Prior knowledge:
The chain is an alpha+beta fold.
Amino acid sequence: VMEKVVIADSWKAVFARNGIKTFSEFYYGIAKKRITRSRDKKRSVSMIELQTEKGPQKLFLKRFRHPHFKDILFTFLNTGRFQSQAGFEADNIDLLEKNGISVPKVAAFGEQVKLGLERRSFIILEEAKGQCMTDFIAQNWDEMPLAEKQKVISSLAKTIRKIHDANIGLTDLYLWHIFISENENHDYDFAF
């Protein structure tokens, strides 16, 4: 079994301060509050809180366990190599960022591989900027003037067009994966 952990430079001291350095410590050892888990228990997302110099910092831990063959095949067909689910997500986040799309920063990711195939992997992300689109709609949509609704939809469509123009496919583009914020020009920005 081979294990690999990649930590962003800006987070190395924080994880060290919290006593987290090995794959097992990242995957199993961080106190977490689970947000969701797939029915087959192969994926879970949890909120974690780490102590930083500025106080507690909220992050999100996504863990993968024994991925489906279809996910392994999808990753291979899209990258030409066997790659963990967390590694694939980290690469996609990097690709989106390089194309000017707002994404949460990767704090760390790791993978546990046996005979070239993923057994487990994880990715830890900073909190996305903005408000979850589902919350934004629930709180604002009914009172929002039609022109403002059109502005939101048009801004979102332009951002998604930018993603597609960069030949990036987002297979899990759902409203609860989109974060919206208003910028200084009173336009809308989106993070994925």
